[in-house]
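User: Show me an example of a complex going from sequences to structure tokens.

Assistant: Sure. Here are the input components:
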Amino acid sequence: MPVAGQVSDGFPVGNFFKAPGTPVNPKVEVSWNRYYTYDGLLEISQQLVKAYPDLVTLESIGKSYEGRDIWVLTVTNFSNKPHREKPGFWIDGNIHANEIQCSEISLYTAWYLVELYGKNSFITDLLDEKVFYIAPSINPDGREYYMRQANTVNSPRSGTIPLDDDGDGEKAEDGYDDLNGDGHITQMRRRSPFGQFREDPDDPRRMIPVKPGEFGEWELLGLEGLDRDGDGQINEDRIGYYDPNRDWGWNWQPDYVQRGAYHYPFALPENRAVKDFVMNHPNIAGAQSYHNTGGMLLRGPGTREDEHLYSRDDRRVYDALGELGDKMIPGYRYLVLYQDLYTVYGGQIDWFHFGRGIFTFTNELFTSYLYLHNQPEGWFGSQKDQYFFDKYLLFEDAFVPWEDFEHPQFGAIQIGGFKKNFGRINPGFMLEQDAHRNMAFTLHHAYHTPKLEIHEVTVNDLGGGLREVIAVVANTRLIPTHSSIDLINSIERPNYISLEGASVLAGMIVHNRDLNLVEEQKVHPSVIEVGNIPGMGFVTVKWIIDGGRNFNITVDSAKGGKISYSQP
Amino acid sequence: MHNKILFFVGWLFLLTLPFHAVSQQDYPNHQQLSDHLQQMARNHPDIINLKSLTKTYGGKDIWLVTIGRGTVTERPAITIVGGVSGDRIAGTELATQFIEKLVARASNDRNISALLDSITFYVLPDMSPDAREQYFAPLQYERFGNAKPADLDRDGKVGEDPYNDLNNDGMITLMRIKDPTGNWMKHPADERVMVKAQPEKGERGQYLVFSEGIDNDKDGQFNEDGEEGVFFNKNFSFKYPAFTRGAGEHPMSEKESRAIADFLFEAKNVFAVISFGPANNLSEPLRYNERDASGRIPTGWLEEDIKINQMVSLAYNQHMKGNKLPGDNDNNGQELPEEHDTEYDIDTDETKSSPPDNRPLSERLDLSNGKGIPGSDGDFFQWAYFHYGRFSFSTPGWWIPATTDEAPGSRGSRNGNRAANQDSNPELEFLRWAERENINDVFVPWTPISHPDFPGKEAEVGGIKPFVKKNPPYELTETLATKHLEFVLSLASKRPVTEIMNVNTESLGNNLFRITVDVVNRGSFPTVSQLGQRNRWVQKTVVRITPTENQQLISGKMIEVVDVINAQSSLERSWLVRGKGNLTIRAGAESTGFSEVSVSL
């Protein structure tokens, strides 16, 4: 819904005519059909700050292993209230180096919010009431390594700390070798009288296995590389390997239990920076950590043993949001991580939920369903669909044609295959749509962070100078101020509902107003501590005061924000 | 000018004095410890390297002392850690005196001196300097947490209910309040000791017992959120006790825990870690528990590693016995724990911060009398085994011998009457032991006070002084340190050592040769622990053959990673090589040393 007073979009703006749902003439022009380097992301971020200084700031929250800044955009209406007094929403992307579109989608969100502030009422309310903390890339070293070094679609997943993957005492001594110098690590094949593969008659670029009892013309030799260290293995010790998403401080397990775990929880500087920021912003009530791939809206837990810690109330919140997302993004499914995908110890999603009480989703961006709207087979869909899609929609842009190469160990071979930018990240023309749909889901998630309202204040004269003040504080959104795990572990301080400007003799939480079931707070009755203000619910408090006609009531909630009411 | 030189010479002289020549009477504080370490490093630059790994929130250095000559990183190392728990100040002293005594021994014992060419000791004397300093503070209490502000009771307020020194004696003990709702009573055998009444035996409680203080924040709990922060020994990632008191906001949140972990992961040569703390697997080895040791996440030591624990424990007990330390039993001097009592207190901070009700005596008072426990959640001792993958040994270093079996009326029993509460009582045992050994000044007599939270009630402050039950009188540390030095040296002699032996070359004709060698582990430790075999941060033995350019490897691996070579075991490897020349074969790992042979074909 447009904000009142806007020029109708039924007419052109300059040379442009509005497509619904998209800014018609944005101050910051961005092409959302390509990917950006670390510097490219920074440049767009800086342009947003310059164009909308009242709505967005940019700060570095720490340095990566290689010394790059981890940038965070803070997006809100800065003029109405300190951002720390608004419910906060965290968005990050690219924790896995090769999952690069997470950054563009995060940045699209920042761009969309500021460009439509004051133009669309949903967006305007959102920035008036909430604050977004957006970190487009929390693995900038890995992002750069993915783009600037030769890689496959799956590499690197980690950051760039060199480790000894094969246990021989040397670090990262036998990585991929870009034999044909094209920046893509593709396949190696060799003609062989005993080959197990032949060319697909429908698309000769594609290798298909022979039928039982046949020989083909080709044998596959794995990914482009050499045996650099002479140990009889190829590409066995690349940059990394560790998994930044196995590094978080909830149910963390070492590498022999959870492959990819680094030395200890938060041993990675990038995650530590995020952790410190989150700890320092207790107003963060919801979070999204973008990944690829597979078209999933994932909630935790990462392990079966933690499932019982998701209370029914918490699950309801996740289910309501997840089922909404399921409808909003065709081809995406709402899933539970440990149950529907795999077990993850020490995952980010679990630390956010269990370690901080933050309602968190991970969207696995892109799905092969989007190629031809066939139900996906496995992670990347059917190979046949991929070849078809590349041939007819991308005009074979995603494939390195097979070419001869003289390999020092294998002799005459051919190198070719799908490029690193195909399979997990969106083809250019499909990026903006996926960005928008996932952003929309995330904005609804953010919309449902707590919204507290002082719904009712009633003053009753009790005679003899005593009066009772009853306040009803409502939360009109799905997410409670405190999740169940938060209450169990006292992760976040209680909500403080306080009355100032009158002498408070007694204070109490009212459990049942009709039957006057109350729980008195004997110490500091003017500031009533309330454990939780449930989603789509309310709490009632009561004070007995002596004198003071004009008083103020303040609700101070870490995740629900701070609001006040003045009794005239 | 002349004076200046004289002054300088005098200063040098002071520096070279042995530390204890400056008549140390009591445990040194952090500054004295730092000075001492710096002095030793200055005096022995050839074998001691001193480094500060980090500074704590309280501004104190976490010291790392590296002892060894030459290339210290490529040969087996033992890490010794003190200050694992801030209340165990003796551990820091034992670690420090280890350095001092080792250096002294090296200067007049050629074997020990030579040992420093083939083994490295990493000593971290104090991992809890912020907490340990409370021993020296104007208000003394057993402290565990560092100086980082923490909300210990997680009520949203930081440090709002500290201890209060109600009797102005500079230390925190207990307080007892006469109250019919209390379930504590005076011990019939010694009225100074408070015990929980056992109603089933006809006993009646008459007292409330708390740690000394007032309920500053009026929340009904005493001293539950004082100035201390995160506990080093609760901050580690193995079985991390999330959101419990003192554990911090998440595992490895503290500079201290990260500093030692970062150092250790870099120190690939460490094969064993010895810590002085509440855990004990030295005077009694851990037991094998198949259920705990199996499964995706092992929580018990693996079977082969238990055997090593038994071997090391045997050595420990041999070195600890026979010394007439005060507290050793007269009969055989081998006063060792028999069974771990499952009732043992976790030995953390329970005495001082417990809420007024529902705390069993066993949790409020340290029933183990310092003897130790098999490990506690989030501790360093278990982390070193389960997450660092090394052999981990821990001992409190000192404890009070039990006198439970003494018959009523025997020596040490105050009045021969224990009609009631016949349970083993560690406080009673401690007091008897102290009396027997003429160690005075361990008890603050119960003194009436007026307590604001209990107006009109009979309230007293008193009890065993802080630290004295868990730490020996300072003068005992010298003997203890010597025993522990001998023990560590015996451990060093058992270290895993890789050696290439029995090099055999056969000529097969026409420039074709077969080389056969044995790769031997000469030590009494395996090259890596059984659990360490799974741990990628534990370097396995690498066997590498490097032919010259003119030679060709026809058969055999150029590089091989061997999971483990067991104690005093070997494996045979052979290669076929074509061509003449000198090739090298190298085998080993940092934690076992490297062995290299040159083979001439």
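The lines above are the inputs; the final block is the predicted structure for all two components together. Residues 452-566 of chain A form a domain with the Immunoglobulin-like fold (CATH 2.60.40.10).
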